């Protein structure tokens, strides 16, 4: 292996090799991490804490003074703990965000409401047929789904779920009307299959 090849080798990490410069670099990075942390930029703070640790580890290896090494180690343990705390917080926040999404809320509620689950499944089938361009069948399926969903809408006690279902029902109704108008024009011979009716029907091609 040549001199150049040695220093270009992927397993040789000179940047983080133990030296008297590691501690200064670690302190600089962790100071930035703390600022980001205090500014509530938790994701960036975690990344910066991790970058700092990449330098703290070799700094500990380089340090020969026992008292100083113990002091650094104590600080590092604190930074590691804080980084893990922020990671957990970000994970929980992400899970909470997913749990608040309309689709997720609806699916979770439908687990305890078989009739709602059936209606949503019927609507899902309608959308699949719609996307495939099987419009007559899709229209019939939308009607079937609406026949299930509309009657149970008023009996849903959960306000958030009721609003979501109501919004979905309105969407299915609009789509059914669009398909109905499209098929009517097609039957009358004023529209060829594949021709757009208007902006509302632009997804039918």
UniProtKB/TrEMBL annotation:
SMART domains: MIT. Residues 19-96, 112-189 form the MIT domain. It comes from Paramuricea clavata. GO terms for biological process: protein transport. It comes from the Eukaryota. The keyword Hydrolase applies. InterPro entries: Intracell_Sig-Traffick_Protein (IPR051866), MIT_dom (IPR007330), MIT_dom_sf (IPR036181). The keyword Membrane does not apply. Pfam families: MIT. It catalyses: ATP + H2O = ADP + phosphate + H(+). Its EC number is 3.6.4.6. This is vesicle-fusing ATPase. GO terms for molecular function: hydrolase activity; kinase activity. Keywords: Hydrolase, Kinase, Protein transport, Transferase, Transport.
